[in-house]
Amino acid sequence: MTKKLSRRDFFKITAGAAATTGLKAAIGRNILEPFVRAPENELPGQATWYASTCRQCPAGCGIIVRVINGRAKKIEGNPLHPLNRGKLCARGQAGLQELYNPDRLRNAVRQSGGRGSRQFEPLYWPEGIDLLAEKINSLSSPDRLAFLGGLIPDHLYHLTARLLEALGAPPPVIFDLHSALEGRNTAVKLSQTFFGEAELPVYDLAHASVILSFGANFLETWMSPVAQSRAYGLMRQGPFGGRGLLVHFEPRLSGTAASADEWIPVRPGTEGYVALGIGRLIVEERLGHVGSHRDNALLYQNVDVREMAAASEIPVEMLRRLAIAFADADRAVAVPGGYLAGQRNGLASMMAVQALNMLVAQIGRVGGVFLSDPGPTASLRMRSQVDTFDRMLDLIERMQAGKVDLLLVNGANPIFELPAAAGFTEAIQRVPFVVSFNPFVDETSVWSDLILPDHSYLEASGYQVPMPGSDRPVVSSQQPVVRPLYDTRSTADVLLELAARLGGLAAESLPWQDDVSFLQETATELHGSSLSAYDSETRAGFWALWRQYGGWWSEKEIRREPDMIGFVPQPLRVLEPEFEGDPQDYPYYLYIYPSITLSDGRGANLPWLQETADPMTTARWGTWVELNPEVARSLGVGDNDVVRVVSPYGELEASAVIYPGIRPDVVAIPVGQGHGDYGRFAERRGSNPLALVAPVTDPESGALAWGATRVRIEPTGKKQELARLESLDGAGRETLD
Amino acid sequence: MAQDEKLSIENNPRWALAVDLDRCTGCQACVVACHAENNVPVAGERQAAYGRWMHWIIIQRYWEGEYPNVKARFMPVMCQQCSEAPCEPVCPVFATYHNPEGLNAQIYNRCIGTRFCGTACPYKVRTFNWFRPEFPEPLAEQFNPDVTVRSRGVIEKCTFCIQRIRRVEIEARAQGRSPQDGEIQPACVQTCPPGALVFGDLNDPNSQVSQMARSHRAFRLLDELGTDPGVIYLKGGETNV
Predict the structure, then answer these.
(1) pTM to 2 decimals?
(2) Nearest beta carbon to residue B28 from set A244, A253, A615
């Protein structure tokens, strides 16, 4: 069987080999390929890039992952994806360390020494699923089953909701701290009030010439920070002319405030007053170029500008200056942020801000407020809406009362993420059987009987409809970029298998063999859309392109003007902010904020993120308490002095950071540290400020009012050096002059 | 030297990085991207507190003024790739040398750890491996195979992602062309969400980086030292109401 290979044949073969590896056959260059083929068509030393979706926050940015010899090496933004256009944030870049984390669970486990013992023994997967099926079958009533989800992708939500419905169980409760801190649920309610639908709007920052940001940390963690940062860059030095004006209202100088032209430290809870004052001035003094404001006069009939100015501690003159700038601008936009939603007057404040956009007729206009167009993606839009804290409290109450016999937890870590005073830790111990699907042993998994670990997002399939969306219809798709490292299983697969075992209605409503067949069926519904950025003749071809592109989106920009027909103008309400804790005993407002690196704490197990400095304080690996220099002086506290922060609900100790950018009546602590479990990089490090937070809500929205607690500061006389990047040699601050 | 010239594709590119401070938001995406691309070790809390951090790029933050009229300014600082680099002549073993494309290169297996270069560097961007870097298994799986993992006792610093420069150059050479402007993107430039970082050839007058270098906002860090850095900063502005 020896055949002589001619020179011509040889070149044909090598050119063919080059084509199959995706390389363009280059002139004067051939690739010699060994006869032995590595698995998955891997060529030694050749990188393959796979498109997928980032799961580090709810934004749903597109990523591409560089894979060499079956190992993921680098995550980058997907240049084609309309949301992030090739860009990615620090957390997205660090996703590799979730995949290759040394503390990941490597197989299903049972807690052998009883819950909370942290003694785990390996469990054979079929046995684990049997056990779960048995627990479901033996429930006396299906409403004794509860499912608690956190940041779960849309396809998994879809399957979970179907399964629970088929079983007759209550729908899943979705709650996570990140979403609570960005006010996601209240923002949805705001959209419902103004636009009559539960879709988060896109604020067109790139084209805006004046942006008033009310506690919206859109350059850090709020909503879709990569897309918004990109827009910010264009607003500053982009092709649209001019250099926009950004004014930021927040009690603390955040990273976003630092990038603003003007930071206005407004009294906590009165951000809405500022918006009302500005609005009233625009209407009263007929500012801007919109013409008659007669229709809007009704909105501001209860507003007194002087009162607003006095309560928010912003002079009327400053309000007038901002009102003129806002109303006179060609393209102005006001952004209601997460800090507003964290107050007890949250929804009212956010309405006051959104009303400003209406006042200057910027709803549906360039540089204003848009809704993303769903296009043909409607069938994929059965997705998780974040629940309110009220619903979470209901669940806790049911658990306390012994009305829950089986609790399933996926992607949520309520013991870490809820205010300690909400009592979840006590409640979970009253549930007879708890199953967690979390891939790490976190604080909540410690209280579960079984852990059936999910894949990391780089090993699993799925999809996500980004919300807020982009300038066009878009769905991000997720695909495995490497083979699963360990004996973990995609939770979607586990649910499908569970449904098959349970039989009956459950099996009927989840008829798919595995998650990929479900995804294939769902995704290919988009096949044949005339809007599509790519085209294929067959559904199979579409499925391949869907994974290759990392999703589906429209080729052309389609913006949707919000429909205001259903909006009935009513006088905007002036609601007084309320705080827990007597001002005499607790003189400072507590401001907890999500860390740009650790987010709400879910990034704390990734060493890159721990090592990366907080942009404002340059501190890392710990928790700190930010104090105004005057306050620190009066307390006799300096940098690195340990202080005790006491609220009516709890206390913690941490090193002080003398922070020039904070109101004297506010104390700020970053969220993210203070994990008791969650792997070697996260454990026993810093403190969790949720221990201080009062479990109160904004009664109108039901959202957690995480900004409504007062605290006092007690010096302890101890000193604990923070690992800061900045040297403190220059009297605690480095300056340019 | 003649051989070096043959290796380089262009006759004489001068690789340069423009940093638009008006766009930079201090978000730290570049810092983590650099760790991932260049196998930069994590020093850990204790060593970080001693100032023995290992980042190749850091975001410096400067305060201006007092509350309430206080401002914070961000400044990403990485190796400035100087033409007249103070780090180069002090190295006794020629581990630090100037490559034909204008980069200050560091040859790790020549380095004997005198830290003279780190001392001479006015920008303080050279970091020293005080300890053997630790990557608990399986974190080592993420190593970029294009970049050496440094051992204890050597100095390391930003290379402008020379492996990414080479990858594009080799590909372009195979296609019989020169790299296009914007085709080469170091990891920090690639990820920067607000688009504050731009990389290119300073010797090409039409490249974006050359145009930015001619901006009235352009300045170099510690220009008075005469180091002729390859990093060009564009100062931020302020819009007044």
Answers:
(1) 0.92
(2) A615
